[in-house]
Amino acid sequence: MRFQNVDFEHTLFIVLEMMQIAIVVTAGETDLFIQMARVNTAAIRIVEPQARVVCVVDEQSACRQAASFKLLFKEVDDVVTVESDFKDAASRSRDLKTRLRSFLIGDFLFLDVDAVPVASLQGAFATKCKIAACYDRNLDPRDYVLQDFVEPLCRESGWSVPSRYFNSGVILWRDTPETHEFSACWHSRWLHSQREGRHEDQPSFNSIVEERDFDFGVLPNKFNGMIQWKRSNAARAHVIHFYTSCWESKQDTVFYQLVEKLRASGELDYGMLERFVDSRYPWVDDTWIQGQIACGNYSRAAWLAVKKKVLRCAR
Q1: Is the distance from CB of 99 to CB of 83 less than 8 angstroms?
Q2: Helix (H, G, I), strand (E, B) or coil at 62
Q3: pLDDT (0 to 100) of residue 5
Q4: Would strands 108-111 and 20-25 be described as parallel, antiparallel, or unpaired?
């Protein structure tokens, strides 16, 4: 596998076709992920108003949460409904995600519903590589340690153990025979992993990246800022990835507040969303000095520190 790093900051390019952004949405007993998708779609409309947003959903989910999906479907440009035989929403989500390339025509950028854009996405399309993604946890491969189950799963399955590990929450897909074959292989390997009791889709994805002999693009970390692992991954991010697997632990984030307000009232707080996109600050408490430093807002952090000291002295 050949890897290509692109100087995105200084690359001039022309987007000849309308930017296409794809999201996968499944649902079980609640509409949580549907409302996440609505917030994500609204953010896309702010940063890339001309983009074509495609929602891919399975038939089971669409039937179970018909009312909520009806609202989402009005907010996206296209809806693709497909079959999935898995009973749980999480498995159906990965089933659709690993097959996504086969459902759509043209190049597209895939976003997990909790990977929210806060700045232009055009730079992600600058690479000429067939597939591109960010390193997992925004870590250099020299600093990354595979989870304990990954190497045994790969070896027992006859797959290559990844030497570089990419996050599958934001992926650029070109429309080529090679990417369609990659996707088919990914789905097949994920199904095998599922049968082995591992639902994660990244081990299968990265094992193929390790084996395939074509250029795989390394997207700059700013296109998938994973703040769960390190707060400073939010600094200058164009996409902030919230990792919502433990949803109630995310109450200190703007994304949580936006989603829960939408669920409770049925109305999206566009003012809060616009402030979030404008500031790229993902936490509710904007007086949190460590958070401002993590985002690179050093002037505001210094001002807050001085203000805090003055107030302390005035007591």
Answers
A1: no
A2: helix
A3: 53
A4: parallel
Is residue 25 a contact partner of residue 113, using CB atoms and an 8 Å limit? yes
Query: How many whole angstroms separate alpha carbon 253 and alpha carbon 276?
Result: 10
What residue has token string 């109450």? 251
Q: What is the pLDDT of residues 235-250, one digit of tens each?
A: 999 999 999 888 999 9
Task: With CA atoms as reference, report the closest residue to 280 among 290, 289, 270, 291.
Answer: 291
- Chain centroid, CA 161 distance in Å: 24
Report the distance separating Cα 244 and Cα 247, nearest Å. 5
Could you read off the pLDDT of 34-67 as tens digits, one per residue? 999 999 999 999 999 999 999 999 999 999 999 9
Phi, psi (rounded to 5 degrees) for 121: -105, 0
Within the chain, which residues score under 50 in pLDDT? Answer: 1-4, 6-16
* Contacts by residues 5-12 (CB-CB < 8 Å, ≥ 24 positions apart): 5/218, 6/126, 6/127, 6/129, 6/217, 6/218, 8/123, 8/126, 8/127, 8/219, 8/220, 11/123, 11/126
Secondary structure (DSSP) of 107-124: -EEEE-TTEEE-S--GGG
SS3 22: strand
The backbone torsions φ and ψ at residue 84, rounded to the nearest 5 degrees and listed phi first, read -150, 130
Tokens 């806060």, residue? 118
Alpha helices in 13-88 (DSSP H): 32-47, 59-64, 66-75
Check: CB of residue 48 under 8 Å from CB of residue 57. Answer: no
